[in-house]
Every structure is written in structure tokens, then in C-alpha cells.
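Below is how a single chain appears once it has passed through the pipeline. First comes the sequence as given, then the structure the pipeline wrote out for it. We keep one example in the README because the format questions we get most often are answered faster by looking than by reading.
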Amino acid sequence: MRDRNIAELIGRIYDAAQDEGLWLGLACQIAETFDSNSTVLYLREMGAAGALVLSATENFGPDFHESYDKYYWQHDIWHSQVVKLGLTSKVVTSKDLIADSDFERSEIYNDFLRGTGIFYIIGACSPFQIKR
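Resulting structure:
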């Protein structure tokens, strides 16, 4: 059953890449498939402020997005490490970017992410630009 759920999820992700209207609700399906309390799918350009949120679980309300776009984007350790390491066309996890002990002491974790239950991430780096 789990393999079928993952295969269906992968299909939905590919479909959403072709039709942006399909992103809605995808974060909830990802969270459910992997038994996670939080999922947010967002795009962020290398030098840009803020992020384009594609889909998010309910614990990422408008206040979360607004806080990130106004302030925390500049303290996003994961993103800054991707830029610093020059990563492109690669899938990364939080542990590829920063040690857990360093992340635990960071401003973005303590003042922003701790309440959401987010500690680990999986991300994809791509050389493409976002069309808005």
C-alpha cells in the first residue's frame, strides 16, 4: 500500500509541475504519505528575497509566509548554504547543509521554525529561474 501511495504521489508531483493549479493540497498528501506533521513546498531564487509557496500544511498560515518574506528569508541557513556551496541540480537534506547542533542554535530555528515542528528538510536545487 505504501509503495502505491508513493507512486501516486510522484505522479501528482509530475502533474503539478505541468499544471500549477495542481499544487494545492499536495503538501498535505506528502505529509500524510510520510507521516509528517509539516510540509511546505516553496521555490526560492538564489539572490531573491522571500519565497513562492506552492503548497503547505495548515501549520503554515499567512503569518508564517509573511514573517519569512519580511525577515527570515535572510536568515535561512539552508538556502544560504546551498548558495555558498554552489549547488545546482542536486537533491539535498538538511544534514548536507548544516550540522544539527549548529542548526539548533540558529535564529531561524529558535525564533521561527521550532513552533512548526520543522527541523529536517529535503530540497532540490535547480539552475532554473522562477516565472512569476
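The mean pLDDT is 86.

See the next section for the split statistics.
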